[in-house]
Amino acid sequence: MTDSVVTAARPRRPRDAWAAAHAPAAGVPRWARAAALTVPLVVLPSSLWRIAAVALHLPIIRDTGPDASGNLPPWMPIELYVVLLSLLSELLAFTAVGLVSTWGEVFPRWVPFLRGRRVPPLAAVVPGAIGATVLTLLWTWAVVMLAFGRTLAGDRITADSPLNVETWQGVLAVVAYVPLVAWGPLLAAVTVAYHRRRARTVIGT
Known about the structure:
This protein is mainly alpha-helical. The chain has seven helices and no strands. It has helices at residues 2-9, 12-21, 30-55, 78-98, 121-147, 168-177, 183-204. It is globular and about 55 Å long.
């Protein structure tokens, strides 16, 4: 009987972890929650594109030649680097969800020494504001450069570039990366909402 109960409970663990990570904090406006949940979604297309093009070698990108690994060290395969980069991007994007969830206000149980303690508002507001500013400037600049036919570094986009929109591969790459323009503004809006909510809580206490 005990074994059957344990077996039945196991499938719920990922679901419980998902529910805990998304448990909404009290007083979160509906628009702020929607904006926070949208952040990982706007990052996802570029992450999937990188993994598909570089890690899985799907024919959605032109051959970049033997120097495709750039300045990566010899021990780091570019496939592994791209997967890790994509996972890191999604983890960073998911921090926006913390600004509307309970774990953004109270440290969860798995955090050593801090479990159960309230998160200092500035510990979330300052990184959120800095991240929103950097992301907004970065991806706005990238779109402006793309509009002038140049890369993020300012180099002219050549015919064999992955961003050459005269090919379907280039159009697909641009479509995958354009949603990143919304990352910064969405994070900024959620950060402001978090700051206002936590400020009211402090005043109320």
